[in-house]
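Progress narrative, Year 2. Work on Nramp family divalent metal transporter from Shewanella salipaludis advanced from sequence curation to structure prediction during this period.
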Amino acid sequence: MDITDKLPGTGRYRQALPQLLQAMGPGILMAAAAIGASHLVASTRAGAEFGWQLAWVILAVNLLKYPFFAAGARYTSATGESLLHGYLKQGRAYLGLFTCLNAIAAVASTAGVCMLTAAMLTQFVPLPIELLALLVLLSSLLLLLLGHYRVLDKLSKLIMLTLTLTTLIAVALAWKVASPVPPGFVSQSPWQWVHVGFLVAMMGWMPAPIEVSSWNSLWLLEKQKMQRVSKAQALLDFNLGYLVTALLALVFLALGALVMHTSGEHFSASGAQFANQLIQLYSQVMGSNSRYLIGAVAFLCIFSTTVTVIDGYSRTLNMGWQLLRKAPESGGRLNLIMLGICALGLMLILFFKGALLPLLELVMTLAFLTTSVFAWLNYRLMTGPSIAKEHRYGLKMKLLSYVGLGYLFGFSALFIYWKLFMQ
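Result:
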């Protein structure tokens, strides 16, 4: 027997650690979904164009959205039901509203992350980006149809760890070799009307669309089918995944600020050229020999996001249909929904003809405009009679929610005003 087993409580904690690591998964999947366009594109672009000026905005957005994301893990761990069951308890109209907005977001988000994945793949395969997007969608579907949650759970953990370590190394090296600021260089201010569109797009997917909270809820139910997950484990898993997404957003911003900000270079709207510029950011500080390694890691990261997005939206749409129509569970229906999302997403990609940044800005802007509704639904759920009183949000979470809702609806109104009168 290990001598530490004789220490008071030590053996119990040593036994609990492996169980805790096994219970982790839904929060990491959420992080895998988040670390896509919002980080590789929006955060890096924010650092490249504005330096460190938007760092506090990224932190503030993550903080203000926290109560609405946390609802997924908190509600499911307390009730054993998904968020969608909670919406239905509030009324069929609430679940219907969620499902309609979720369907729109599903197609747009799938198209955005798929084109970004295809753009990364152009660095290795000399084929048109539209054809590569089709291959990405087919590969994602095959992985999900054959492996479903277990493969997704294991794959996301490995890719997340690899991307995190690689990006931290790149930023650490960039800090050491960062070029001095050229004489007379003045960083442009993001607080101008012309940049409102970018700010809203960046905040729309920072750290992810709020409907991801419903994915976390369903993934937690799937995890509980495999093993018991306590409320404490579920919340720790969620909080860890959320913290990782927030910190990595700053890390990507730092990479853009340290390497690209003072160069005068701007990201291209073309998917293939953007991917080349992004990989170049890493290779400038890690050496040209690292180019293919970085490209592979970035591709795997975005591919993981694509798989996660298709799975998450399909599960929520399937559950929404099942609850609204009082239909039985059906794996065949879930597969058809996956096929439908991918087909419509591919049509949207073909419409944009390889223009990555315009497509992503559209997707992230739609996410911001709809996220206010999703946030309001989650707040109603976590403060209403659908959940036991001891599990409802307390005063601190309510206050943070009020501020968050004010920020979301306020910026949505500002964006609409800018779009109608300032452009």
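Confidence is low (pLDDT under 50) at residues 1-21. The chain has one domain: 24-179+188-257+267-422.
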